[in-house]
From TrEMBL:
This is DUF4440 domain-containing protein. InterPro entries: AtzH-like (IPR024507), NTF2-like_dom_sf (IPR032710). Gene3D superfamilies: 3.10.450.50. It holds the Pfam family AtzH-like.
Length: 140
């Protein structure tokens, strides 16, 4: 088990982790239903917010919101696997997950998000989405 940072940051305070897990579930529900308003609300509205996607590099909230507005609402369903959510202190957390889409057989998606709790709630400040050939299907 990794040791805690020297500044005694508490890792996975139960109520904080539970809060972030609930917000992550809200994000996932919004993603697969193309609820753009909720997705936008969960990203930090700043020029420093970044989202690297499978086919795009988005810098700043405005680029992320524009991407969401024009994205196809088709084939968004997916199944999450090995989701890991870790919180550090009361206002910082990371969510990482694998996912599979029926529309992308043979591919394994990966998603990482950095979350910060602001006065108006948890927001994503950085995200990375990518896909690789599914190791479970390579060579089969």
């Amino acid at each position: 088990m990794p040791s805690a940072p020297s500044s005694a940051v508490e890792i996975d305070i139960p109520e904080v982790k539970s809060d972030l897990e609930a917000v992550f579930a809200r994000y996932e529900a919004a993603l697969v239903t193309n609820d753009v308003a909720t997705l936008d609300a969960l990203f930090f509205d700043a020029s420093s917010t970044i989202r690297y996607g499978e086919n795009e590099n988005l810098y700043g909230f405005a680029e992320i919101a524009a991407f969401r507005a024009r994205r196809s609402p088709l084939f968004l369903g997916r199944k999450l696997e090995r989701t890991v959510i870790t919180t550090f202190g009361r206002d910082y957390g990371v969510a990482s997950t694998l996912y599979r889409r029926e529309s992308a057989t043979g591919r394994l998606g990966r998603q990482s998000q950095t979350w910060v709790r602001f006065p108006d709630g948890w927001k994503i400040v950085a995200a990375h989405v990518s896909a690789i050939d599914d190791p479970a299907t390579v060579g089969s």
